Amino acid sequence: MGDKAVNVFDAEILLSQIIDKIKIYNKASSNN
Amino acid sequence: MFDIPDLTKFVSERVPQGKQQSLLSEDTESIYIGLLQLTGKIIDNFDITKCEKVVESKRLIDEIFVNFLFKAVFDQGGDENKRIVTKVKPKRLYGEVDAGKAAEEKGGLGKKSKDAAYRLINQLIKKSPLLLNLFLEKSMLPLMKMIKRQDGWNYSPPGNYVEGRQKYCGLRNLGCICYMNAMMQ
After folding, report:
1. What pLDDT, in 10s, does the model give residues B100-126?
2. Does any CB of chain B come closer than 8 Å to the CB of residue A2?
3. What is the separation, in whole angstroms, between the first and last Cα of chain A?
4. DSSP label of B171
5. How many beta carbons lie within 10 A of that of residue B107, not counting itself?
6. DSSP-assigned states of every residue in B140-157
7. Pairing of strands B147-148, B84-85
8. A-interface mutation test, from B9, B15, B27, most A Cβ less than 10 A away
């Protein structure tokens, strides 16, 4: 249970980071 | 299964963070698609209520829809005179595909990225009613408002039709929609 909670928390961080990257690529693509 | 800490490290370290212009390289398309697919996998494998909170707070759907898929439409949106008219021109449709190809060739985001983006949005709104609502409200509704409605029917001949003079009459074919016209008529 504890492990799963850590996993979910990490997944949130990962998801958040990925979304930030997607935003960067969108911005770079529109500037091009 | 994911090794989350490793993956987090990989995403934060390896995906370039440098100047935005220098991000666009030959690999741009595949990295972008990879990020979209990874998001899809996370949504599939982890608690959707936690994931939807992140997606909602980061406005992911809005970001993909407004700043990527329909960027050209939303950029024109502010100018009343340039509003999109629902008249379909076949040449324009083919042109769009070519533009996608050209973008891919120069290392930009092209048709494959769009396919991946549509797939992810589809996955998100299927999985979560909350995200479906958000999508309709924040992305789809503004897009629909930007599409100018046709004032009247576009039929042939216009108005002064005298029976017998003209062989055919009915809705004009806007391109590739003759089957629909036939059904409506």
Report:
1. 555 555 556 788 889 999 999 999 999
2. no
3. 47
4. E
5. 16
6. IHHHHHHEEPPSS--EES
7. parallel
8. B15
